[in-house]
Amino acid sequence: MQTTIRVVRHTHLPRQTIADLRVLFDVEYHEKFGPWDPDCPYGYSPADVHVLAFDGLDLIGHVGFQRRLIDVGPVGVLVGGTGGVLVARRARRTGLGTELMGRAREAMETAGVDFGYLGCREDVAPFYESCGWRRIRAQERCLSRRDRTTIIESTDTPILICSAAKSAASWPAGPIDLRGTPW
Q: Which of 82, 92, 136, 138 has the highest CB neighbour count under 10 A?
């Protein structure tokens, strides 16, 4: 497998790459969540930066992030809200997911965000931790991805951060308000 990784702003995605992303996500999630929409992927916030892995011309992996100022206690924190982490079945267990997460962190640093931020299911949290992301515990507040108006507060879902422009050790304490839907 000859893998190429590209970092592309959402506004610069070629039409064919958007079509390829739709296929990548629909193969995995269409049955449960319906068709993928680049502007509202399954109700989550869309990425403004995409880290894409190609095997030749075939899109085989993706990590997206969106720059957003969130509240952590009384402090505004600029994060790269991360989502859409997916590797095609044929490319899993090759280290590609780890490589994509590393490139995403580098892109966040280049984009000037303070930290990477993501929420996930408990069963995938160990993968992110193996990529150098650190689990934090905090109350998180966000808008529901289902209707984008209902406020959801949670303390029991995994939240992970990584260093970008600032060290993860400097993450402030306090409840988190995502100021929108999660990624």
A: 82
